[in-house]
Every structure is written in structure tokens, then in C-alpha cells.
TrEMBL record:
Residues 52-131 form the Pyridoxamine 5'-phosphate oxidase N-terminal domain. Its cofactor is FMN. Residues 143-183 form the Pyridoxine 5'-phosphate oxidase dimerisation C-terminal domain. Catalyzes the oxidation of either pyridoxine 5'-phosphate (PNP) or pyridoxamine 5'-phosphate (PMP) into pyridoxal 5'-phosphate (PLP). PANTHER family: PYRIDOXINE-5'-PHOSPHATE OXIDASE, PYRIDOXINE-5-PHOSPHATE OXIDASE. InterPro entries: Pyridox_Oxase, Pyridox_Oxase_CS, Pyridox_Oxase_N, Pyridoxamine_oxidase_dimer_C, Split_barrel_FMN-bd. GO terms for molecular function: FMN binding; pyridoxamine phosphate oxidase activity. It comes from the Eukaryota. Its EC number is 1.4.3.5. It comes from Caenorhabditis brenneri. It holds the Pfam family PNP_phzG_C. Belongs to the pyridoxamine 5'-phosphate oxidase family. This is pyridoxal 5'-phosphate synthase.
């Protein structure tokens, strides 16, 4: 293989953080991670001056019984104070992996606002009534939803100085513990 002609190590984008550049704990609008995700999601959705394609597109990572990780893009179809839902074919690779191992991770990346959001969660099948409420056309019986219940939230705000702001919420019984990972 030839040496790549692109100098990958020096590809860097300057981040635009004019609005509230750091995600400081004392500036957080809430310490409820679900509410904070809602604020971020609505903020991205309201950015009419930026063109976002499918802001609900999310990378879903799963691992089956073979312990081989797999990631793919899915579309988030709902989020509530209990978790995040998407729909798929239960007989697909991700459907089988979630059946074999209900642990999964979702990663949202919104590059135009230099933000990403990561969740570690456990999946549950969406109830039939809830699934039917989202269906507008006839789908095979093997098509349905998963509701992912978070145990870990990470909010990441990119910074041009590369001291990216990272805030984590981890579940401890009935409360969410907040901690800073960086800087």
C-alpha cells in the first residue's frame, strides 16, 4: 500500500463557540441529563441559519454473543424522560445483537455546533401498542422498536484549543451523579 497523499495529522477545524463556549457545571441550565439532552436537541433543531440533515441520525453500537462490535446509523424516533427509541427489523444484525446482549451505545454528532452526545444504555423492546402508534404504513411483523434506557450520559462541546468540554452523568440507584471528564 502506498503512503497516503493526505496529511491526516494536520487536518483540524476551528470550532465556532461564540455562544456559551464552555459547558461549565455552574452554567448548566439543568442537572437532569434528559432535560439537558432536550435543550441541546431543540437548540440544534432551531438553528435555521445552519443546514442540518437528519438531526435525529445517531450511531448505534451493539455487541452480540460473538463479542464483535457493530455500529450503524439509525434514526431516533422518540425520546422521553425514560429513554430513546428507534425502529428496525428484529431479524437484522442489530436486532439479533440487541436480543443477545441488550447493552448498546448511541452517539449523536452535530458538527455545525461542535457538539456530541453519547449514551450507554440497556435496550428494551417497545411495547406493541407504542410500536403501532408510530406505524403509518403496513410493516412486517418482524419490524418494531427498541427503547434504550440510559445509564450514562456524556455531553461533549468541542473547543478550538482542543480542551474539549466533557460533562458526564452516571446513574447511581435513583439519582444522577454529575462529573467533569475534561478539561
Amino acid at each position: 500500500m502506498e503512503t497516503p497523499s493526505i496529511d491526516i495529522q494536520n487536518i483540524r477545524a476551528k470550532y465556532n463557540n461564540a455562544q456559551d463556549p464552555y459547558l461549565l457545571e455552574e452554567k448548566l441550565p439543568t442537572t437532569d441529563p434528559f432535560a439537558l439532552f432536550d435543550i441541546w436537541f431543540r437548540d440544534v433543531a432551531s438553528q435555521s441559519d445552519l443546514t442540518f440533515e437528519e438531526i435525529n441520525a445517531v450511531s448505534l453500537s451493539t455487541v452480540g454473543k460473538d463479542l464483535r462490535p457493530s455500529s450503524r446509523m439509525v434514526l431516533l424516533k422518540a425520546y422521553t424522560p425514560t429513554g430513546f427509541s428507534f425502529f428496525t427489523n428484529y431479524t437484522s444484525r442489530k436486532g439479533h445483537q440487541l436480543e443477545e446482549n441488550p447493552n448498546a451505545a448511541m452517539l449523536f454528532y452535530w458538527p455545525k455546533v461542535n457538539r456530541q452526545f453519547l449514551e450507554d444504555k440497556k435496550s428494551e423492546l417497545v411495547e406493541q401498542a407504542e410500536r403501532e402508534g408510530h406505524e403509518t404504513i403496513s410493516k412486517p411483523h418482524s419490524w418494531g422498536g427498541f427503547h434504550l434506557v440510559p445509564r450514562y450520559f456524556e455531553f461533549w462541546q468541542g473547543q478550538s484549543d482542543r480542551l474539549h468540554d466533557r460533562i458526564v452523568f452516571e446513574r447511581d440507584t435513583d439519582i444522577w451523579l454529575l462529573k467533569r471528564l475534561s478539561p
